[in-house]
Amino acid sequence: MALAAQAPSRTELVQRATELIPLLRRHAAWSEENRRLHDEVIEALAAAGIFKMRVPARYGGYESDARAMLEVATELGQGDGSAAWTASVWWINTWLTGLFPDEAQDEVFSAPGVLVCGTLSPTGVAAPASGGGIVVNGKWGFMTGALCSQWQLIVAVLVTPDGPAEPIMAAVPMPDLEVIDDWHTAGMRGTGSVSTVARDVFVPAERVLSLGAMLHEEYGSKQNAEVPAFRGPVLPTVAASSVGTMLGLGKAAREDFFGRLPGRHITYTAYYAQAEAPVTHLQVADACLKIDAAEFHAGRLADLVDGKNAGGEDWDMRERARARVDSGRACQLVQEAVDVLRRASGGSSLYTSAPIQRIERDVQAVNLHALMHPDTNLELYGRVLCGLEPNTIYI
Question: Which CATH architecture best describes the domain 231-385?
């Protein structure tokens, strides 16, 4: 077990992320073409301490808060959306690992710099094993970061002979799983979000948690029980960990547009300077205000998580639903802003070398994510506001 060290401040971590932007941009096209992050990107993120942000302090981690994740992911997203998204997925699953029994954490975090991928989708089936533990079979898609991870958190439905089926989460070493190279997508290609398959994989009992218990903040760790970073509910924490990528992509699109604006004109019109056209003024004002509004929702989400965690307060249903909808609204606003800037970028932006092309594809991809989908989260929030029970356990 590593000795706890003084964690860098949020300002220092954000500065490290900012310094990575040129490198991320330099390798973004390669990562997209090769459907995984470039090795230099992985090495640079590790060297900057990005992967330690959600690792428990007793294993040498920083136990960073939600605001730090938001601001760091926003910087990374301005360099490459795939890099930012993959980092956030590793944060989420590192954090989830910190909810497991302490002996399981000792095993997973025994190797410095360990990376954990995972999912919340119950697309596997588990059965009790003789002598304890479970045997798992199944397939999990969209496994971001699996190509570089040492562990995966899988969710499966545990079926027992004399009891109701129950969803569980289990920590599995990557060598126990088969990787299916099926990540051929329109967006977020650099995340390498391949599928994995388990065939009669044994998992000992200490590496298994009830998903239902986790979603009700009934965690397995004793040593992390009083640590603010590990107090919060799963879904608000996941949302706060993810939303910075979208904000970064929006800011990257804004920067790209204004960087190309000088000297551009609007073809087949009398506007020889695009910056002088009233339509441009309307477009950039609309896009920038949407990005500002997205930043508000993302910040409100992060501050809610941090405030609740610091005080050890319980969450009511409206707060849980608002965490989901803040994430969804931020995603929607960034998508709308990027669409405005893309339409204003002219025919020359059709070239694949134009960053706005990759940014738009990545933004579209994230907006299809089931936990970040704007319409799904808006409906959920509206149900709760109307006094109805949520129609999902993922809240």
Answer: Up-down Bundle (1.20)
